[in-house]
Design brief:
- The complex is a heterodimer of chains A (527) and B (393).
- With 527 residues, chain A is of the alpha+beta class.
- Chain A has helices at residues 3-74, 80-90, 115-122, 160-167, 195-200, 205-214, 251-254, 256-326, 333-358, 371-388, 408-425, 456-459, 479-489; strands spanning 98-101, 127-128, 132-134, 137-145, 151-158, 170-171, 175-180, 186-189, 222-225, 229-238, 243-250, 367-370, 392-396, 403-406, 431-439, 442-449, 493-499, 503-511.
- In chain A, the strands form four sheets. In chain A, strands 6, 7, 8, 9, 10 and 11 form a six-stranded antiparallel sheet that branches.
- Chain B is α+β, with helices and mostly antiparallel strands and 393 residues long.
- Chain B is 23% helix and 24% strand.
- In chain B, the strands form six sheets. Chain B has a five-stranded mixed sheet with strand order 16-15-17-14-18. In chain B, strands 3-4-6-5 form a four-stranded antiparallel sheet. Chain B has a three-stranded antiparallel sheet with strand order 9-10-11, with no helix packed on it.
- The longest helix of chain B has 11 residues, at 213-223.
- The chains are: A alpha+beta (527), B alpha+beta (393).
Chain lengths: 527, 393
């Protein structure tokens, strides 16, 4: 695993453990904020609707009060008609006041009052009609007593001012108010696009909601209006006149503030997460670089210790040979020659071990390898060494060819290392088996010996560098760690099973690569 | 529009709303620019000569709807019913008023050029009538032009409510002759825009010419006041400055009856209040009845909207025996000033012996589809510039 990947992993771990909970908390908080924002917007719309409704009630009450006062003051004067006409100049909203008597022709009676209402008005009772649209504006017919039986003062209240008031209500940039009568007919619309319905009487989407609300149904506080816009709404109704006021605002605008806050907070949380990952990554890389440096020094120290130990051992032997040579005794000459040959071989293997350590595994060097043939090659390579130790080398083939992709040289070095260890662990006359397994996309080479076995506590540190217990002067302790390095770099693994007194099995598992053409087979050489 | 569409015929008895389309089908020789100067329409060139004569050179590319060119003879024949005499001159057509005291330019502004063919009138305007029902006059442009209005349907709705509703719904693209109080309906409607133009008529209380000059003077002083203006029009914009004379009062006398018609009821009531004890009955009648009673002299005062612009138009209303002078008004000083084309003197004569109390001149208001890029009203006929309107495509 590269230092960058480790750093990223560390940074992600830090972010996940530290920032993500915060992020989740933020999301939760934001959700609450959004809900509260919506509720606050709806309450504001509701308050505006109620204010508008209160104004309607006040306005109509004032109009009726003024009408009553005028009727009592003027209704019985001889020039009442003229004075009533003058009233319309000062109070146009009162409409054209007129006296209604029993003999007043039907054509001169207020059009929206029933005969029963007119009769009641002539008996001195105040009566009023439903709201209706007179020409262009909402109107309402009202009759009030004049103070004399059989005479009433009637008019058609012009509710243009109310219509204006409703239409002028603005909430934000796009919010508006609507007013409906008892039947759901639109009387005033702050939305220009809906104003045609005021005049035509065509129902709008909110008409049914308004009538239902007037009858006591719960207010629809959020719904989609005909253009498909999601709107928030506040509702208020008034019994006399039976109007319903709705104040609507597109949810997009009403919740813009909350959404902006949500956006900023979300962005902040995300930014924090990204920053924590970036800084975590940078810091982790620095820490890893430091650790790696320390590790290199430690490794160098271990290598130096191992090398100095082994080279010291070799040096002692060479000094003995030197002493023997210094005697100039011819009888020592064969022993000196033999010892020097041994030492040269040992030093070669020593150098080869180091050479293996420096060779990197590169996928570009991979080629197809058939493991049965590979095992034979390994046996050939280790055969001389085994024969010297009087150990028999056997190969147990897999029933079918087993293919892997790999660096043949390095894999052979690894396998030979395992074979050599197995030979060394075996007793004279013993045997070592190279067993090939394959199938299900998996390939394996097991190296079995029947030696003394490995102590369990020793097994866990087998693959650690410089941990060899042999220290015979030819073992640097890099063999098994190097085997593991090579196999892991091929995407495989190395495991060991051992039983004291019965022997050990090292199992190298590699990814299978399916059927391949035969690989070039080069003879393995003993490390 | 709302009201009766009427017949589409020049000089018809019942012109109705259809007359709005006359300038699009029947061209005039001239119209007015914003400064009140004559500008050529069917004419290629127009020149005022000394006296009252106007020299016009005809545009030679003008054709009637059947493709035949407009000739001098067509102009001579067309202008004759309008009280104009047209004679050939060396450089064009010389146009003079046949009636004494009626300015040629005022008459010329009302005269259309046409040719009669098979009992029908043809015009040389950019549009031709494609069809007509009781409620709709359909006109199409003779030669369609990209980016312009090529198809016009003049729709006459029965009530203002219908007209407004159809305009708000987008069925109609233009609505004219609005009162400012109705603008509320159209504010905030994205598809529509409000267009304003200069007003050429002044709401007035016209006096019966039989009233003594001194009384008319007092009446004008009392009625042309800010108080009357505010009572009658509220916050509507009137171009008149405050002409109230706080010290003015009326001598005792019989109450003055006010005849009112159309949209002038509030004006009549406001006037009556201003008259105090002299304010008599206000009678709201239909326009035809008002006309009949004016012709019979059966009124003391009557509401109306006489033209004030261009200045020469006052001759058609206030000059003694002018065709539109139904009020019995006669002022020799005014007649002399009109004959001399001295409009300043004419205005002074009107002030000295007022035929009416001029209360409020209001601008014209229209609602126009927002896709029309350059809508404008007037300057003479309210929609005369419609053929030049450009449409955003």
């Amino acid at each position: 695993m590269t230092r960058r990947r480790i750093a990223l992993l560390l940074a992600a771990l830090v972010a996940a453990s530290g920032v993500l909970p915060l992020l989740l908390l933020s999301v939760f908080g934001l959700q609450i904020l959004r809900q509260r924002g919506e509720r606050a917007s709806q309450e504001a719309l509701q308050a505006i609707a109620e204010q508008a409704a209160a104004r309607v009630v006040t306005y109509i009450s004032q109009q009726r009060e003024m009408l009553r006062a005028l009727a009592m003051a003027v209704g019985n004067e001889p020039d009442a008609e003229r004075k009533f006409a003058d009233v319309s100049l000062d109070a146009p909203s009162l409409g054209k006041l007129r006296l209604v008597l029993a003999e007043t022709p039907a054509t001169a009676l207020p059009r929206s009052l029933t005969p029963a209402q007119i009769a009641a008005a002539l008996r001195g009772k105040e009566v009023l009609s439903e709201t209706y649209l007179a020409d262009l504006v909402p109107a309402m017919d009202v009759c009030v007593p004049s103070g004399k039986p059989g005479r009433a003062v009637c008019t058609t209240l012009d509710l243009l001012e109310l219509q204006r008031q409703v239409q002028r209500i603005r909430v934000g940039e796009q919010g508006y108010a609507l007013a409906f009568d008892r039947t759901g007919r639109l009387l005033a619309a702050g939305a220009g696009s809906m104003r045609a319905a005021v005049l035509s009487g065509e129902p709008v989407a909110e008409s049914s909601l308004a009538t239902a609300f007037l009858k006591g149904a719960p207010a629809a506080v959020r719904f989609q209006n005909p253009p498909g816009r999601d709107v928030l709404a506040g509702w208020a109704s008034l019994p006399d006149p039976a109007w319903t006021i709705a104040v609507e605002q597109p949810a997009e605008e009403a919740l813009r503030g909350a959404r902006s806050a949500l956006g900023f907070l979300g962005l902040g949380a995300l930014l924090t997460l990204v920053l924590s990952i970036v800084f975590g990554y940078l810091l982790a890389r620095r820490m890893l670089a430091t650790l790696e440096l320390e590790e290199r020094f430690r490794t160098a120290g271990q290598i130096a210790a191992g090398i100095s130990h082994d080279l010291g051992h070799r040096l002692a032997i060479l000094q003995q040979i030197e002493h023997q040579a210094a005697t100039n005794d011819v009888d020592y000459l064969p022993r000196i020659r033999e010892s020097l040959a041994t030492e040269v071989g040992t030093m070669r293997r020593f150098v080869a071990d180091f050479s293996d350590l420096t060779r990197e595994v590169k996928p570009s060097d991979f080629m197809p390898i058939e493991l049965n043939a590979f095992a034979e090659s390994v046996r050939n390579g280790a055969q001389a060494y085994a024969a010297e130790a009087e150990v028999r080398l056997e190969v147990q083939h897999a029933p079918a060819p087993v293919w892997v992709l790999g660096d043949r040289y390095l894999l052979e070095r690894a396998a030979l290392n395992l074979a050599r260890n197995a030979v060394e662990a075996s007793n004279r006359g013993g045997s070592v088996r190279l067993r090939v397994e394959g199938g299900s996309g998996r390939a394996a080479l097991a190296v079995e010996d029947h030696g003394a076995g490995i102590r369990p506590e020793r097994i866990k540190e087998l693959f650690e560098s410089f941990s060899s217990t042999k220290r015979t002067g030819v073992h640097l302790g890099m063999g098994l760690p190097n085997v593991q390095r090579i196999v892991v770099a091929h995407g495989g693994s190395v495991s060991v099973k051992s039983s004291l007194g019965k022997g050990s099995t090292f199992l190298v598992t590699l990814p299978g690569s399916g059927a391949q053409s035969s690989s070039p087979s080069a003879p393995a050489t003993m490390p | 529009m709302w009201g009766a569409l009427g017949e589409f015929s020049l000089g018809g008895r019942d012109p109705g709303l259809a007359s709005i389309a006359e300038p699009w089908v029947f061209e005039k020789l001239v119209s007015l620019d914003d400064a009140g100067e004559l500008k050529p329409l069917l004419a290629a060139r127009v020149e005022r000569l000394s006296g009252d004569a106007i020299l016009v050179e005809l545009r030679r590319d003008a054709t009637f709807t059947d493709g035949t060119p407009v000739t001098d003879e067509d102009v001579i024949r067309s202008l004759q019913p309008s009280g104009l005499r047209v004679t050939r001159a060396e450089t064009g057509l010389l146009i003079e008023s046949r009636g004494r005291g009626l300015p040629a330019d005022a008459l010329l502004l009302q005269a259309h050029v046409f040719r009669e063919s098979a009992g029908k009138l043809m015009g040389s305007g950019p549009f031709v009538v494609a069809g007509k029902t009781d409620t709709e006059l359909h006109l199409v442009r003779r030669q369609p032009q990209p980016g312009r209005v090529n198809d016009v349907r003049l729709a006459a709705y029965p009530t203002p409510r219908d007209a407004f509703a159809h305009t708000l719904k987008g069925d109609a693209n233009v609505i004219v002759d609005l009162e400012s109080r109705w603008l509320e309906f159209f504010r905030g409607v994205p598809s529509l825009r409000i267009v304003r133009g200069s007003g050429h008529g002044t709401d007035a209380i016209v006096f019966n010419g039989k009233l003594a000059r001194s009384e008319r003077l007092r009446l004008a002083q009392v009625l042309a006041s800010q108080q009357v203006r505010e009572l009658a029009y509220g916050d509507a914009e009137c171009s008149e400055k405050d002409g109230s004379n706080q010290g003015a009062s009326l001598p005792p006398g019989a109450p003055l009856r006010i005849l009112s018609w159309g949209p002038f009821e509030r004006l009549a009531l406001a006037a009556r209040r201003a008259l105090g004890d002299r304010g008599g009955d206000v009678t709201q009648v239909r326009p035809e009845e008002a006309l009949a009673r004016m012709r019979a002299g059966d009124f003391d005062m009557v509401t109306g909207r006489p033209f004030r612009w261009p200045p020469s138009s006052m001759a058609l209303v206030w000059r003694s025996d002018a065709p539109d002078n139904l009020f019995g008004y006669s002022n020799p000083d005014l007649d002399r000033a009109i004959d001399a084309r001295d409009w300043s003197a004419a205005e002074a004569a009107l002030r000295d012996d007022p035929p009416a109390a001029f209360i409020c001149t209001r601008g014209q208001l229209a609602i126009v589809d927002a896709r029309i890029k350059n809508p404008r009203l007037g300057p003479y006929d309210v929609l005369e510039s419609l053929p030049d309107w450009e449409v955003d495509q």
